Amino acid sequence: xxxxxxxxxxxxxxxxxxxxxxxxxxxxxxxxxxxxxxxxxxxxxxxxxxxxxxxxxxxxxxxxxxxxxxxxxxxxxxxxxxxxxxxxxxxxxxxxxxxxxxxxxxxxxxxxxxxxxxxxxxxxxxxxxxxxxxxxxxx
Length: 139
Description:
The chain is an alpha/beta fold and 139 residues long. The chain has helices spanning 9-22, 62-75, 95-99, and strands at residues 4-8, 28-36, 39-48, 78-86, 107-112, 119-126, 129-138.
């Protein structure tokens, strides 16, 4: 089984723009789509507010999260990826990220803004351990 995140350029641009607009706080959100045989296809981007307004961790607002998950259900989509940014550190899951990865079937996308060019990496996080997976960027 292949673990793969398929996302188009417009969608990743939305995620990066959200990360930049929230900086120096961490940005967060959900990528909704479909998953089959380890392949996750992003169909919709949900940009969310970091309820903690922190530069070192994120918490999705529970009311907003409920609304997003309800909309996904109505649209026949699932949360294929949870994303957040690291304004000042690499795109690698922190201990806090690994501890709070509550969706074992989802991929976690991290956008680092520590360099001029944003750096994006995706991970499966299960039982406190992370494994990087491939991101297939499509036009």
